[in-house]
Specification:
mainly alpha; two-stranded antiparallel ribbon; about 75% helix
Length: about 400
């Protein structure tokens, strides 16, 4: 029987998903700025700056898209993307640590980046000139891209000079920017459904696959967070726990909508799963922007994810060791032994971290930081093992 409705498998392209996530983020930011403008809600600017830098980094790492145009995903681009992600993480976690630099970078990315993209669209041979000839939906694409790039320039100016417009007007501009990005993402998905080769070209550059790129980003996130928690617990640095949980939720959300990987295991991507991922993203965005309003609820949610996910995955690995669901007999390659040991250790660490979120005084904060850093290191080592296994498979295919 074929699945249908909310459970029917979907194949949304990665660039559309990132663009849609960015649009949702800007729309939520615009909506929140209305009560912020009246003093009803507090506002954490560094949380928004860090989140935006993280979105820019995701585009660079997974697609080779920068605020100033598309490039091949070379090692240099991957490194710059990771550096941008790390900078965004620290910006969110430690209030004011980089001064005005995050705001300047975001203003340049939106303002100057929007201008460069607008000029590229107007004068590049393969953009507006070609789209005019294609006609139909591509005429709408010209309007959608022009609107997004123009609003991006305006948002960049507003970020650089916040007094340029009243906050309520700024909120409307940001909301319109988010709506324009969402419209563009929906339009692109329609175009990709008709011309699927356009959606695939980003994955054919020979570099790290998107799912492994997300493991890399998550590993870096955990290492930075864990290392920062050590001086934070010694009273050396300030810290935003709300932004920490918010960014973690956004990272979980993106893994869910992009690859179907959830804290409780991997599932086929369906409309229900994608919708759930975007709900997680919205909760994370709100937590990054509005300090502490969602911390208690999200702490319980993430703690539950870590405990249940770690326990379920640990059982899947350990059951064969006790003769349950035993795999076929034969010599097990040493690299698979290392892979199993790494996964077992990661799941134990995940359970420990989840437990610490329910019982904050059970484990000292400095030790929690060490646990998180170790988890990030294990993720990076897992990525190394997966790359080795892929290399071995390619060698076997080449020799056969």
């Amino acid at each position: 029987m074929k699945s249908s409705g909310l459970f029917k498998p979907v194949d949304l392209s990665l660039d559309v998903l990132i663009l849609l996530l960015a649009g949702v983020m800007m729309a939520v930011t615009g909506l929140l700025l209305f009560p912020v403008s009246t003093g009803v809600l507090p506002y954490y600017e560094n949380g928004l700056c860090g989140l935006l830098l993280f979105i820019f980094a995701l585009q660079m790492i997974t697609l080779g898209k920068t605020p100033f145009g598309d490039v091949r995903r070379s090692r240099l681009v991957l490194f710059c993307g990771l550096a941008t992600a790390g900078f965004g993480f620290v910006t969110s976690f430690v209030p004011g640590i980089f001064g005005q630099l995050p705001r300047v970078l975001i203003a340049l990315s939106f303002g100057l980046g929007g201008l460069v993209l607008l000029l590229q669209m107007l004068f590049a041979q393969d953009k507006m000139r070609a789209w005019v000839k294609y006609g139909g939906i591509f005429h709408t694409l010209i309007i959608a891209c022009g609107g997004v790039y123009s609003l991006s320039i305006l948002v960049g100016l507003l970020v650089l000079k916040q007094s340029l417009l009243p906050l309520r007007v700024t909120a409307f501009v940001v909301l319109a920017f988010g709506a324009a990005i969402i419209f563009l993402s929906v339009l692109l998905e329609k175009i990709y459904s008709r011309y699927p080769e356009g959606a695939r070209r980003w994955l054919e550059d020979g570099q790290i696959a998107p799912d492994k790129a997300l493991i890399l980003v998550t590993g870096v996130f955990m290492v930075i967070l864990g290392l920062l928690l050590i001086p934070v617990n010694l009273g050396i640095l300030p810290f935003s726990g709300s932004a920490q949980i918010g960014l973690l939720m956004v990272l979980i959300a993106f893994q869910t909508i992009a690859t179907g990987s959830t804290p409780l295991g991997a599932f086929p991507r369906s409309p229900l799963l994608v919708l759930t991922g975007f709900c997680f993203a919205i909760l994370g965005i709100v937590s990054c922007l509005i300090p502490y309003i969602l911390v208690p609820a999200l702490t319980v949610l993430i703690g539950t994810f870590n405990i249940l996910g770690g326990s379920v995955n640990l059982l899947k690995i350990l059951l064969p060791a006790f003769g349950i669901n035993t795999p076929p007999s034969g010599a097990v390659p040493i690299i698979l032994v290392k892979l199993n040991i790494t996964q077992v250790t990661m799941n134990i660490v995940s359970i420990v971290f989840g437990t610490s979120m329910f019982f904050s005084h059970l484990i000292p904060g400095g030790i929690v930081g060490g646990v998180l850093a170790a988890n990030g290191g294990l993720l990076l080592y897992l990525l190394h093992l997966l790359n080795l296994i892929d290399g071995m498979k390619m060698q076997e295919q080449a020799s056969s």
